[in-house]
Specification:
The complex is a heterodimer of chains A (127) and B (119). Chain A has 127 residues and is an alpha/beta fold. Chain A has 4 helices and 5 strands, in the order βαβαβαβαβ. Chain A has one domain: 3-Layer(aba) Sandwich (Hypothetical Protein Ychn, Chain: A), CATH 3.40.1260.10. In chain A, strands 4-3-2-1-5 form a 5-stranded parallel sheet. In chain A, β2, α2 and β3 form a beta-alpha-beta unit. Chain B is globular, with a radius of gyration of 13 Å. Chain B starts with a strand and ends with a strand. The chains are: A alpha/beta (127), B alpha/beta (119). The interface between A and B is medium-sized, with 24 and 21 residues.
């Protein structure tokens, strides 16, 4: 594909999802970015915090809203070797959610731990 | 330093594109390199050729075009985000080009810093 790019450089990328899945397009277009970055053999991390945790909540139904329910795509990330998914513990708790409410296996980190992980990244893209 | 810039919001509704432009200009003035400017989400709307803002206000798209001309900047509009919003070859202003998201990832790999402007 035209995107193919060989440099041998592997950087730590983190995509930080902070917004609800619907209402704005950010969650969907971040997902498109994540999928593309899989083709570049980079060290990809995906974090969900604040209202972003709702992006991977089970049982999403967009019903008659006319919005596309893209939540099944999160389950496909594993097939693209994107397995480093993180959720902030405090964000889950503040919303009355637990790990059992989530669509995909994640590592739950405290706010402090997530901040530490972020500081180790080469690139953090947040939306 | 080698910078890459990501513009995540459209012109006027947000100040993000203005801030990104001023950042790019300041960086270039101080002798830094801008590897690429990538436009994503509503940021692709900065690349429309049809914008005609009132003449007593800045022209955000034109500012980018002029800066690109002066410094041979690579202004890249995401093809998928552009198609959603009607930014295609026919509507694209001079100085911009349309390409894939891979160009953003490549910029992130190549640059020392990727600086994102948006909400």
């Amino acid at each position: 594909m035209e995107e193919e790019f060989e440099s041998g450089v592997v950087k730590k990328f983190m995509y930080v999802n902070r917004k609800v899945p619907y209402g704005t397009i950010y969650a969907l277009e971040v997902l498109e970015m994540i999928l593309i970055s899989a083709a570049f053999d980079q060290d990809v991390h995906v974090a969900f915090l604040d209202d972003g945790v709702y992006q991977i909540k089970k049982g999403q139904s967009t019903g008659d809203s006319g919005m596309k329910n893209f939540s099944p795509t999160y389950r496909a990330l594993e097939g693209y070797d994107i397995e480093k998914l993180y959720v902030e513990k405090e964000s889950l708790e503040e919303r009355g959610l637990t790990e059992a409410d989530l669509l995909v296996p994640v590592e739950v980190l405290s706010r402090t731990e997530l901040a530490q992980l972020m500081s180790e990244m080469d690139m953090v893209l947040s939306a | 330093m080698k910078f890459a810039i990501l513009v995540n919001e459209g012109p006027y509704n947000h100040q993000a594109s203005d801030s990104a432009y001023l950042f790019a200009k300041a960086a270039l003035d101080r002798g830094h390199e801008i590897f690429r400017v990538f436009f994503y989400y509503d940021g692709v709307l900065n690349a429309t050729r049809h914008a005609e803002p009132p003449t007593d206000d800045r022209n955000v798209g034109r500012n980018w075009q002029k800066l690109a001309e002066q410094h041979q900047l690579d202004l890249v509009v995401c093809v998928a985000a552009g198609l959603r919003r009607g930014i295609v070859e026919d509507t694209l202003a001079p100085g911009f080009r349309i390409s894939g998201l891979g160009q953003l990832i490549e910029a992130g790999i190549q640059a020392d810093r990727l600086v994102a402007f948006g909400d």
